[in-house]
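pasting for ref
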Amino acid sequence: MFDWLIWLVSWVFIAIGCVFIVSGGIGLLRMPDLYTRLHAASVTDTGGAIFIVLGLLLQALFVFDNPMAAIKVVLILFFTLFTAPTASHALAKTALLSGYVPLDEKGKPILDSPETAQKLARSRPEKK
């Protein structure tokens, strides 16, 4: 009886997730440096994954009556929510350790030198 409502809500969630992911792709093309591109991609991909999984969850539970598929989709979301931010952090820290200096909105370096970026990225003080 309410199948059309479930279909409608699930496809709205999936469409919102796709909009998030497409906006992240546009952010990858439009942002000026690695750090802002990384931020645009990681935030929008995580948000997009949440909405897509919500739509797929509704489909799996109410349309196809398959709780095992719903559990698998939730596990995929769980692993995505933990691995995507971790990978973004690792990439940003590696860029700082390599001496890649972040830029401001005018394209000028925020830090004085690549050595300053490397020191900023170190989580432990250097041993003498």
